[in-house]
Design a protein that fits this description.
This protein is 80% helix and 0% strand. The protein is mainly α.
Length: 194
Amino acid sequence: MSAQRDEVRIKIVEIARNIFTHFGFKKTTMEEIALATRKGKSSIYYYFSSKEDIFKAVVEKEADELKEELRISILTIDDPIERLKVYITVRMRKLKKLTNFYTALKSDYLSHLEFIEEIRKSYDKDEVKIVAGIIQDGIERGKFSVEDPQLSAVAIVTAMKGLEIPLFINKEQGNFENRLNNLINFLFYGIVIR
């Protein structure tokens, strides 16, 4: 693919991203994307085979943004406790901003799109792997008392997913931060006095 073609594809994805964010997948049309990009509909079809193909590119771009921000956020943190806290905090804050990616992960009406299930599985697998790695490091350093890092990672990822909707529905930033801190405290310290 030529550099110019790559640039055009990137521009279409960025513009389509905004349209999908504003109107959602169902209500967005190829005509709207063509109009917003100032290209003919046939030109859009030169770069993408369908609206689904554009949405896939948008979702993959947002998934890559999330992965990169998470990677950077935990890269320099040595302490596994702090690394896990930062991972959870950055993940929840960033996911809240990635409307299209989050919609792809959660919406049943998109399940018929084959690539959605692939993205969901890939993201889940990557996330469990990262969290399990942090937990394993914490075990080796004597910071975590966990018998099965993989199972614990699945539990933490599941807990985060279960709290996404309640966290994201409330638009008040302070309430979001408070709920997020409570989630982290619960995951780390539970409710049982030992």
